[in-house]
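Re: weekly structure request thread

Next one in the queue (235 aa):
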Amino acid sequence: MNVFIVYAHPSANSLNGALKDYAVQRLQAAGHSVQVSDLYAMEWKPALEAGEVAGHAVLAEQEKLLWADVVIFQFPLWWFSMPAIMKGWVERVFTHGFAYGIGEHSELRWGDRYGEGTLAGKRAMLMVTAGGWESHYGPRGINGAVADLLFPIHHGILYYPGMDVLPPFLLYRSDRMDDARFAAACAALGKRLDALATTVPIPFRRQNYGDYDIPAMTLKVDIAPGVVGFGAHLA
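Done, posted below.
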């Protein structure tokens, strides 16, 4: 497979840097082709300017996306989301006509999005480190359930242009890492990387396949009755 890693951490000597290097080695050893966009090393410009037209840098990233069978977004969880430089990568690379604004609207379908689109057929996975304990991100944890925190990325950034989104690889208490924990983390990550082609994606509902009223884009009354919030969009 072709695997594209979009990586955001300012320090090459960080835990994230070590995990990224391990992932590249593991994937290549298994025979996969790997490309990495190290956003800090590239000095990626995150700000989308008014009237910006996609230039060489943006087009090169879009080519990597089109080349990839699997896209891995690796980052530390900062202020409950991805680092600003990675969000800026999304804003500049996921351009109109490439990742959104595709397809005609009608009474039967509302463009090619949420399960359809330019990136349909590709797989995506987040590799996320967090400083807090796993319990802090549990269903009743003070930080909120991690599935809810990542929903805007999983559903709104990755699934929107058509990618199948795999469950994330999560590493908690990232500031408490010794050799034994790092070895265990690499072993767990290795298993996830080995199963990129076979892991069952998060079962998000597809937009144009009968679950939503068009053009209101709300779930039909007989679909998950009484269920609201992010969970209602899981089949």
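The domain at 2-201 is CATH 3.40.50.360 (Rossmann fold). The mean pLDDT is 96.
Next request, please.
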